[in-house]
Acetyl esterase/lipase
Amino acid sequence: MNRAANPFHPDLQRAARLIPNVTVTRPVLAVMRFLTRLQPASRFPEAVEVKDVRVPGPEGAPPVRVRTYRPRTVQGPTPALLWIHGGGYVLGRPEMDDLLCADFARELGILVVSVDYRLAPEHPFPAPLEDCYAALRWLFAQTEALGVLPERIAIGGASAGGGLTAALAQLTHDRGEVRPVFQLLVYPMLDDRTTTRTDLDLTIHRGWNQGSNVFGWRSYLGREPGGAQVPAHAVPARREDLSGLPPAWLGVGTCDLFHDEDLAYARRLEAAGVPCDVTVVPGAFHGFDAIARGAGVTREFRGLYTAALRRALFPASGVAEQAKAG
């Protein structure tokens, strides 16, 4: 089968055929949330300790649950990663990324904190972003108690979690209270204006299609997406001045609905003087690494962004080797 007939990476062609073409709507969302809660508990490696903690939420809002993943074999203060799950701003919970976060903790020897932020449409912007900010403030405030190096805290996320990561980087820059050292953007959901595009080949999108994108952005913004104006920090790609943000790594596939908006954002970061390492995976669709966990292309992709985290959190290789989990 040639590339023209099948645009997907050879490792992903079977998965692409099997993924149902589902558009998220309110009734579909209810079913998806129910199924997410039925996800069986993850079996963690003995080397990782997992705990749930409730931390102070935004002013006037409930506490925020965070899920922490700590390597048992690391001694002394460690770097940390605040991780934000995906789900189109309307779906998901930290448990869906249990294995990924445990791998980060074990492989890098770091504390990982995953945020259970409130979801749209019940809780539109700014509630999800403010929950993430509250969790990050807590992490910085508790560095001594948690055994974390405050100058080595990164933020990261996938899909809508990547969009919230980019928005969080902008918000922390503007408020000036806490300063993450790095932002990890895994096929991030950055620009509501993509919902208005009519020039895209919609037949190649798997995992997240244009209809779901409209629903996700409409739910998060509380209005029709793609309009002339949006609130500050609501849509990361709408921000005009990207200077002064933390260095970034961004990865996306060529068959991902977010491909164009992601590369445009990466170019703008670089133009603003923000280092941004970009990985483009030929023939990869949205969420391919979660759907095809065992594929070679997934292992390579995850290896790249894990290495990017290692470089950001352990800038001296000697420190990295000393702090890595056994």
Summary: The two ends are 44 Å apart (CA to CA). The first strand starts at residue 48 and ends at 55. Strands lie at 48-55, 64-71, 78-84, 111-116, 148-158, 182-186, 248-253, 276-281.
